[in-house]
Amino acid sequence: PAPAAGTAPAPSATVAATPGTARPALPPGVPVVYRRPANPAGTITYQPRVLGVAKLHFVDAKAALDTWITRSHLAPFSPLGGVVWEEAAVAGDLSAELDRGPAAAAAFAEPPAAALNPKSYAAWSRELETVIYQTATLDLMTYPELKLASAPGETEGDFRVRIGERLREKRDAEVAKLKAKYAPKLQTLTDQLRRAGERVEREKAQAGHQKMNTALSVGATLLGALFGRGLRSTGSVGRATTAARSASRIGKERADVVRAEENAGVLQERLDALQAQFDAEVAALREPVAPDALEIQKRAVRPRKSDIAIGTLGLCWTP
User: Fold this and answer.
1) Cα separations (Å) of 178 from 22, 186, 280?
2) Most buried by CB count within 10 Å: which residue of 69, 93, 160, 309?
3) What's the pTM?
């Protein structure tokens, strides 16, 4: 991997320039910039480097990735005066750290002769394009279940948090679908249970009324017998027959009450079972998922070769 921005290149493949004092004269065709020193008030000696700024196009249809990224390559010179792009410090856009002129009272190291030749930079640009295509990658994290991919520069921790948010949104939508699915069934059973309860009350009322009528009929029959008309008279026989019929209806009304209560009990059991099934499915959907337990896939995406664009390349004096 390329060293981080600001990392000094390995000395084995490069050569240190001989420190000088005055700023070397450069021909008009050599683009030159100055990297801003961290401490402008200190003693500053600029070292010659080559800065190449490239725009890279990363595309991955499966991850819905299509993005352009700017990368700056700050490379040292080799002992023979070439550029060691493989040892370049790679960073993002460095334009905010560059100046058009040097710091005051700064000293300059002597650049190699090739750095003074404008034609060298065209060759170095082609070399950088080749190195970028061979080595540059974009680390991509994906979560296939949601077809999510990390954004450029997004950390794994932030990506996991974003996945968690999307999972909660998805599960909230699934809970809403479950409610829409179960609501009609629950409402139907609730209405049936309400009507069954009303029937139980009606049957109880009818049974109570029939019990009262029977008691009155029996009482009237007994009173007629007590006051001398006798059970054998036509009226007494009719009242006795009515009382007997009323007594038999009591049993029927009681049976109706029992059946109505049993029907209401069955409906209540069905409603309780359906509600329990709904609650269990909702609980399973809302079971929390730890961000660290998410199975993230990682792979490296290479830039499109035809889209590599070297926008800026020139001599960069680096403190």
Assistant:
1) 78, 12, 11
2) 160
3) 0.60
